[in-house]
Design a protein that fits this description.
Elements: H1 7-18, E1 24-27, H2 30-40, E2 44-47, H3 53-67, E3 72-75, H4 90-117, E4 121-126, H5 139-159, E5 164-171, H6 177-190, H7 194-203, H8 213-223, E6 235-238
Helix pairs in contact: 1-8, 3-4, 4-5, 6-7
């Protein structure tokens, strides 16, 4: 489980641990990772930057060694910075490419031998509601999280004969640090307070509220379970009805 020291990533790790799963957690901040791993009862933890292919290779090898195999891979990474097309630099595109798309590609590539050896291989990619409906001022996320969803759909077909399912979870608006940061930028541009912008964001959700991380994590735990063995190649929105598309 990558990017798992806070927000939705930590909630997913906690939900899996509550179901009896031995979880290896990872993030870039070694000190914070050690603290969180102790708090939630993780079986192992390793610091890694998933935007770096060599870190991914080392992380997966260590997790397989610590856990004695691998049944589940939950892919998460900090979102790329907000911005529109005109203000996004070539370097910004390059960094987001490695962080958002290639992290998912490399993690899957390194984990698949162990997952295929499992009798319950699962890959769950945490993406965004932007894969269904692009979000204003998030050009990098809109482009690259959609690429993750397309890659996962193809991989799901290829891995289905081997008993490995591949699915995506598309969160909507949860009151995480990233959500507050993005809304702070929106509020500044609109000349309003953060509190007013957060209220506007919540009001735009059909349920009228932000999601709770535990609600998202429950969906992650289900897709990782044996009960979800016949679900693959899907993108499940956990967004309170935010995305308006039919599929």
């Amino acid at each position: 489980m990558t990017a798992s020291t806070k927000g939705l990533g930590r909630a997913c790790a906690e939900a899996l641990i509550a179901e009896g799963v031995r979880v290896c957690v990872a993030s870039r901040d070694a000190a914070e990772l050690e603290r969180v791993a102790s708090e939630i009862g993780a079986a192992a933890h390793h610091a890694a930057d998933v935007a770096r292919a060599e870190d991914v290779k080392r992380l997966v090898a260590a997790a397989v060694a610590d856990l004695g195999g691998l049944d589940i891979l939950v892919v998460n990474a900090g979102g790329p910075p907000p911005g529109n097309f005109a203000e996004t630099t070539e370097d910004g595109w390059e960094r987001a490419f490695h962080l958002t798309l290639m992290s998912a590609v490399n993690l899957a590539r390194e984990a698949l031998p162990a997952l295929r050896a499992s009798d319950q291989g699962r890959i769950v990619n945490i993406t965004s509601s932007s894969v269904r409906e692009p979000i204003p001022n998030l050009i990098l996320s809109n482009a690259l999280r959609g690429a993750v969803a397309g890659m996962a759909k193809t991989l799901a077909t290829e891995m289905a004969p081997h008993g490995v399912t591949v699915n995506n979870l598309a969160p909507g608006r949860f009151l995480t640090e990233r959500m507050r940061g993005n809304d702070a930028l929106t509020a500044k541009k609109a000349g309003i307070s953060l509190e007013e912008q957060l209220a506007r964001s919540a009001a735009a959700i059909p349920t009228g509220r932000f999601g709770e991380p535990a609600e998202f994590a429950a969906a992650c735990a289900f897709l990782c379970s044996r009960q979800a063995a016949y679900i693959t190649g899907q993108t499940l929105g956990v967004d309170g009805g935010l995305a308006r598309g039919v599929y």
